[in-house]
Amino acid sequence: MTRLCQSIPDSNAALKEQMKTAVRLEPGVLTYYAVADKKKPASITILEIYADSAAYQAHILTPHFLKYKKTVEHMVKKLKLEDVDLIGIALKPTK
User: Fold this and answer.
1) What is the distance between the alpha carbons of residues 75 and 87, in angstroms, rounded to a whole number?
2) How far apart are CA 63 and CA 43, in angstroms?
3) What is the reported pTM?
4) How many structural domains comprise the chain?
5) In angstroms, rounded to a whole number, what is the distance separating the alpha carbons of residues 92 and 95?
6) Centroid of chain to Cα 4
7) What is the rounded distance in angstroms from the CA atom of residue 88 to the CA atom of residue 36?
8) pLDDT tens digits for range 3-50
9) In sequence order, what are the beta bridge partners of 35?
10) Which residues span the domain enclosing 36?
11) Distance CA 59, CA 68 (A)
């Protein structure tokens, strides 16, 4: 997902809270990354990985996601969703 927002600090704070809550509470939310374009910090790319389509559908109905959506609806100027298939993940092992 790519979004373009108006109020960067408020939008990013709401996004971080939503991401942490989703990963903590929802077993089907596997990964959440959010990055800002260095030259255009209002342009945010979010990578979300779910266990399956049902996990995503459940996620968008959760109270924390609905709160996030309502919080940022007046801040987000443009939103582009892309449905992709995961090819692979490479992570360093945790200790």
Assistant:
1) 32
2) 25
3) 0.83
4) 1
5) 9
6) 13
7) 23
8) 666 678 888 999 999 999 999 999 999 999 999 999 988 889 999 999
9) 45
10) 2-80
11) 12
